[in-house]
Design brief:
Layout: E1 6-14, H1 18-26, H2 31-34, E2 38-46, E3 50-59, E4 62-73, E5 78-85, E6 90-103, E7 106-117, H3 122-148, H4 152-156, E8 157-166, H5 170-178, H6 183-186, E9 190-197, E10 202-210, E11 216-226, E12 231-238, E13 243-254, E14 260-270, H7 275-279, H8 285-311
Antiparallel strand pairs: 1-7, 2-3, 3-4, 4-5, 5-6, 6-7, 8-14, 9-10, 10-11, 11-12, 12-13, 13-14
Helix pairs in contact: 1-3, 5-8
Length: about 325
């Protein structure tokens, strides 16, 4: 039984109004886009002042998952959190986000943690301490960068989705999307794919694809396979130069009139400083948004076309590439 609670605090000064910073940290559904350690967030219940969420995130290179309850206080600019279901080596974890105004255009962002390790094991305590240090510094730094980008974030961040109707079984489509290790034999433009799974539906994937000009493109992703819900969500951990962050979802739903709809959803943040280098000196963020949407939709569309042929039992007639 764990009885000795450890306490840690991290902080950073942000050149941005406190309300803007609070808005960022309260939007937990966007954390996989905003914060590098976060892979996926599921909102289980929500009111104006309370949330119950399930989070998948990396800790010291490992993907961990837990369920937390959050209490939001926009008047005091605080968010208290407590893990209801933790994952070893964590026995318990809680803490508070605090935004402290300094001036109208400056604030301090604090992240406090209190935790216990399984059996109060010193080695496990050290492991958790390192993870909290690394993740807290990463999240605070990202919050600072995003908040200080001001209104530009609204232009840099966007989501979109594409849907294909398939006259086939949902289980067959899920098999195609789930068994990404077979994509090199099913998708002609995928030349290499390394896939590992930890037994809880979390996959790590490294993939090489050939682009239209014949060059090779490498991506790395963490995928969470929610097989009971016919969904796979993912976060790209190695992004192209134009993207600061990229998350997505494969979603299968039954169509009322028969068949199933398969949707590919993408959420991205453009890396503003990379636009000129990638697309040319005269390119704008609007150009980058258009370029990214077309590229991702094209790849998703070709992957969905192959999934359709696979599920409907037809022979493949064309090549495809696949986003992670």
């Amino acid at each position: 039984m764990s009885t000795v609670e450890q306490h840690m605090s991290h902080s950073i000064t942000v050149e941005s109004p406190a309300a803007r910073v609070y808005q960022l940290i309260s939007a937990i559904e966007s954390w996989p886009l905003y914060f590098a350690p976060n892979v996926h967030v599921e909102i289980l219940a929500r009111s104006d002042t309370e949330e119950r969420v399930r989070i998948w995130a990396t800790a010291n290179g490992e993907v961990k998952s837990w369920t937390s309850r959050r209490e939001l206080d926009p008047d005091r600019l605080t968010i208290a959190f407590r893990q209801e279901v933790s994952q070893a080596p964590v026995a318990s974890m809680g803490g508070t986000w605090r935004v402290v105004p300094v001036t109208d255009e400056r604030c301090e962002l604090w992240l406090d943690h209190g935790f216990t390790a399984v059996d109060d094991d010193p080695q496990l305590t050290e492991w958790i301490t390192k993870a909290v240090d690394r993740n807290s510094e990463s999240e605070l730094g990202a919050a600072k960068s995003l908040a200080e980008s001001g209104d530009d974030l609204a232009e840099l961040e966007f989501s979109f989705e594409d849907t294909v109707r398939i006259d086939g079984a949902a289980a067959k489509i899920m098999e195609f999307l789930d068994r990404a290790d077979l994509w090199p034999t099913r998708l002609e433009h995928v030349s290499r794919l390394e896939l590992s799974e930890d037994g809880s539906g979390v996959q790590r994937m490294s993939m090489d694809t050939r682009t239209a000009d014949g060059s090779m493109h490498t991506t790395e992703s963490v995928r969470v396979c929610l097989r009971d819900e016919d969904r796979i969500v993912y976060k790209q951990t190695l992004t192209p130069a134009l993207l600061r962050a990229h998350t997505g979802e494969w979603r299968i739903t039954r169509a009322p009139e028969g068949g199933v709809d398969v949707t590919s959803r993408h959420s991205v943040i453009i890396r503003a400083e990379a636009v000129a280098n990638v697309l040319g000196e005269k390119a704008t963020v609007a150009d980058a948004r258009s370029f990214v949407r077309q590229a991702l939709s094209r790849n998703s569309g070709m992957t969905l076309a192959c999934a359709k042929e696979f599920a409907e039992g037809r022979s493949r007639s064309g090549s495809a590439t696949a986003p992670a």
